[in-house]
Amino acid sequence: MKVIMLGAPGAGKGTQAKKIAAKYGVPHISTGDILRENIKNKTQLGLKAKVYMDQGLLVADDLVLELVVARFKLSDCKNGYVLDGFPRTIPQATALDAKLDKKNDKIEYAIDVYVADEVIVNRMAGRRACLNCGRTYHVDTLKPKLEGICDYCDTNLVLRDDDKPETVIKRLEVYHEQTKPLLEYYEKKGILHRVDGTESIDNIYKEIIHILEA
Ligand code: AP5
């Protein structure tokens, strides 16, 4: 199963992508998580990426493509994946399609989780992230068992640098300019499905499963 999760920053792509990946036994590939891992490990790529991410801008297409191509080579991708945060521009989408075409392969579903911008700004202020394992929580809607601590790896949860309101507003602008055109791109391919991201996490998940099993 090859699925792409689309949606604005904070729409809930990652929350749903992790659940879908776990259900179908395929990896959840988040380019944001891979980039943050590189920043944590102070790699060359991480140092370059941080400059853009801290401003709410996208990292250059060629750098992200390099990461994704390397990730696809790992054996856990043989039965598919859930892509979260990639592709994010038309050039990334066409590069992905060209790569899959060569293997007579294709993306089967593009799921757009849609949420209005004003809901997103409030949501992001309440998000808490584990920078060790990539899990995310929310101070109101998805609390960890122990306040401020990741349920899975006991690491302290933080407000991501790019979740500050001024950076979120910039990320939303970038989303509307560079990522939203992907909706039309996948609609033309007949694989776009849209779900209401203001529903509860469980209801959205059920709706996505319904789409994937129709
Ligand atoms: P990335 O990490 O991909 O961030 P994003 O796309 O902006 O998405 P988020 O992780 O912020 O949000 P999400 O939709 O996954 O929401 P979540 O499930 O956490 O990218 C970060 C940066 O990396 C980019 O800005 C860019 O610089 C760079 N980058 C990454 N990929 C790139 C690429 N391909 N090309 C170029 N640059 C790239 O949910 C948000 C919060 O809401 C959580 O607290 C959650 O608990 C809560 N929540 C979720 N669902 C619900 C619900 N239904 N109701 C109430 N609360 C909910």
The percent range for strand residues is 5-15%
Separate helix tally: 9
> Could you give the order of the helices and strands?
EHEHHHEHEHEEHHEH
What is the CATH C-level name?
Alpha Beta
Strand order of the largest sheet: 2-3-1-4-7
Counting helices, strands and paired strands, the structural category is alpha/beta
Q: Identify low-pLDDT runs.
A: none
For the termini, the CA-CA separation is: 13 Å
Helix content: 40-55%
Alpha carbon gyration radius: 16 Å
Largest sheet: 5 strands, parallel
For the secondary structure, the number of strands is 7
CATH superfamily grouping: P-loop containing nucleotide triphosphate hydrolases
Q: Overall mean pLDDT score?
A: 95
Brief account:
The protein is an alpha/beta fold. The protein is built from nine helices and seven strands.
Describe the structure.
This protein is about 45% helix and about 15% strand. With about 210 residues, it is α/β, with parallel strands linked by helices. It has a single domain (about 1-25, about 75-210), classed as P-loop containing nucleotide triphosphate hydrolases (Rossmann fold, 3-Layer(aba) Sandwich), CATH 3.40.50.300. A hairpin with a 6-residue loop joins β5 and β6. The longest helix has 15 residues, at about 165-180. It is globular. It starts with a strand and ends with a helix. BIS(adenosine)-5'-pentaphosphate (AP5) binds near residues 31, 142 and 171.
Tell me the layout of helices and strands:
Blueprint: E1 2-6, H1 13-24, E2 28-30, H2 31-40, H3 44-53, H4 61-72, E3 81-84, H5 90-102, E4 109-114, H6 117-125, E5 127-129, E6 136-138, H7 165-179, H8 181-188, E7 192-196, H9 201-212
Parallel strand pairs: 1-3, 1-4, 2-3, 4-7
Antiparallel strand pairs: 5-6
Helix pairs in contact: 1-9, 2-3, 4-5, 6-7
